[in-house]
Each structure stands twice: as structure tokens, then as C-alpha cells.
């Protein structure tokens, strides 16, 4: 099964024991956006995708589920 963005984002966040609200605040997003992304209800902008990838120290390709390598 190929993991997509919502699953990868949730797993990275949970691995760091971080709440959705905390991640939203750290990235300058509205408090509910991480939940929206994790449910697959919206896709992040390119800028937000880069911000999240940088925060977790992974590539955008990994975050999008296009690569198995961080």
C-alpha cells in the first residue's frame, strides 16, 4: 500500500508526540488545518508543504508518498 500525504503527515506528527494544534502553531497555520490535511480534505500549498517537510526533516517527495526515503 502506498502511503499518501495524509498518512505520512499523521505518522510523522505522532512519532514526535505532537498535537495537531502544536504543529499548526509551529507552522503558522490555523489551528484546524493539520486535521484537515490528515483527513485528506485539502491539499497544502507548495509553500506549506515545504514548511512541513523542513519541520520534520524529510523531503517533499517523502511527505507526498512519492518516495520511501526521507
From TrEMBL:
Residues 9-63 form the HTH cro/C1-type domain. SUPFAM superfamilies: lambda repressor-like DNA-binding domains. Keywords: DNA-binding. Pfam families: HTH_3 (PF01381). The keyword Transmembrane does not apply. It comes from the Bacteria. Coiled coil: none annotated. The keyword Lipoprotein does not apply. PANTHER family: DNA-BINDING PHAGE PROTEIN, HTH-TYPE TRANSCRIPTIONAL REGULATOR. This is Helix-turn-helix transcriptional regulator. It comes from Pseudoflavonifractor hominis.
